[in-house]
Amino acid sequence: MITPNPRRGESRMPKVVLKLGDDISTDIIYPGRFMATVLPTETPQYAFADHAEFNAKLKRGEIPPGSIIVAGKNFGCGSSREQAASCLKGHELVIVAKDFARIFLQNSINLGLRTVACPTIEASEGDELEILSDKVINKTTGREFDIVPLPKVRQAIIDAGGLIPYTRKRLLEERR
Amino acid sequence: MGMTIVEKILARAVGQDSVKAGDVVEPAVDLAMSHENAALVINQFTEIFKGTGLEPRVWDPSKIAIIFDHRVPAESPKTATNQKKIRDFVAQQGIAKFHDIRGDEGGICHQILPENGYVRPGYVVVGTDSHTTSHGALGAFSFGIGATEMASVWTLGKVLNVEVPATIKVIVNGVFRQYVYPKDLVLHLIGKITAEGANFKVIEFHGETIKKMPTSGRLTICNMTVEAGATSGIVPPDDETVRYLREEAGVKEKVEIIAPDSDALYDQTIEIDVSDLEPQIALPHTVDNVKPISEVEGVKVDQIVIGSCTNGRLDDIAIAAQILKGRKIARGIRMLVFPASARIYRQAIEKGYVSDLMSAGAVVMNSGCGPCLGVHQGALADGDVALSTTNRNFKGRMGNPNSEVYLCSPAVAAASAITGMITSPKSLINR
Q1: Which homologous superfamily does the CATH classification assign to the domain defined by A16-148?
Q2: Is the dihedral of CA B283, B287, B288, B292 positive or negative?
Q3: Closest Cα in chain B, distance from residue A72 (Å)
Q4: Helix (H/G/I), strand (E/B), else coil: B114
Q5: Which of B191, B254, B302, B313 is the most exposed place for a label (fewest CB within 10 A)?
Q6: What pTM did the predictor assign?
């Protein structure tokens, strides 16, 4: 499941729960000292571990699935550690950033973490955002921002449900 | 229209006459490297085979390299258990290029690959480590990927859906002044083009300075291209590449030279003259926050680190030993040295460098990633300032978000250890 559906009876638009600047590194998203933890079921507890307040909210279950992190340029720069994507996926967060670093973006696609590249995005914590296929509408300010679509080849992996099912399909085709 | 070196490598890896930037290809992989995160790769690899009725077998065990370097020796039962799981997998799959925790053949992956001749010009190399860009120093197209992507490579032997990257040509000319090194060049370049200036692109290095640069320096500059967002850095192979592979990596086979076409299409061209370049420092908390040392001298430091995949090679340790020989590290400062491989460590012992460093007060640790990413050894206190020859200074990078990390060359690190503050080697020697 790539896009979390709103829970039954939950009609509220997803909110921005965290606003960040440029160059947010994987050391901030998932500090290196937790890298021995690899299972996607275990990594979410360390998401933004050094951002104590936000991490505590995540762990207390106060951040509903589908909530949005808004960031500036080059989100996910640095290490290739896949835990940075899997820890956010575990909370079903959506990342709207001006743009993304290469390895983080590919890891997100491979794991089904929803990323939205939106170079002009302007939003504050608490704003409600509607994410459409081609634009983000900030329901709080009424402004709209264009999305840069993913290249088709990456979309194919998302449509397959992530890289594991995609590769499994290719494996079976090749061995047939 | 001609091809860049990476376009040529990818064309060959997909069996086509040519490819161009923007094409989507599925290149065959010549070498697939992982470190301790192979534990996660194994999980994902097993997951791919679930429900297929097929036995999980890697596509070619001779093309997989696994090197333990991030937490060596293991710092926790969890790490030890991951390492054990990988050891078992390596035995079961018959993976030969495996470097365990050993004093004869262990070390950091980005030194183990070149010094054992595992990387050759024209190869497609992938690694579950962002600094896999290093191996472009030997004329390979070498880039970092995530663990699930690696599981896919282990299964199919190719990388799926790769867009051929555009290439930035960087031409470097001029002779380095005394105490200025490839590290200063690459810090200067990152400062100039910013932390995302080469996002999704390759940096191809040219010019007289690069031609005269030994492979160790080329590894340093290619290593850090990822700090400008680059998919990879690459130096077109030449006589020095062949010399390194023959003399230092013991390669006997023919080494094929591959070169970009003279009419290749580049995204942009950047020219740098290093003749007047000062030692460069990256200030907290981004690698592109670069200033010449004259603007940073005097900043007090608490811990000095020399080593890592960026600057832990024999020439790096040699210059530090030369500066520190017969001198003392300032009281209150810790200096940690991490040779990039066990082989380099032994060479540094034979040449007397280890003795010089220890007599000055440095602690020479076993080869490994150590404190660079804050996972193992050398933790910083709240408020500490580290000066390091490693590659990243992000907030919290060395394990403590309440500390600061400055990046520099080994010469600056050694000079600063003596004074306890950021110090130009030139001003120290002239003092």
Answers
A1: Aconitase, domain 4 (3.20.19.10)
A2: positive
A3: 12
A4: helix
A5: B254
A6: 0.95
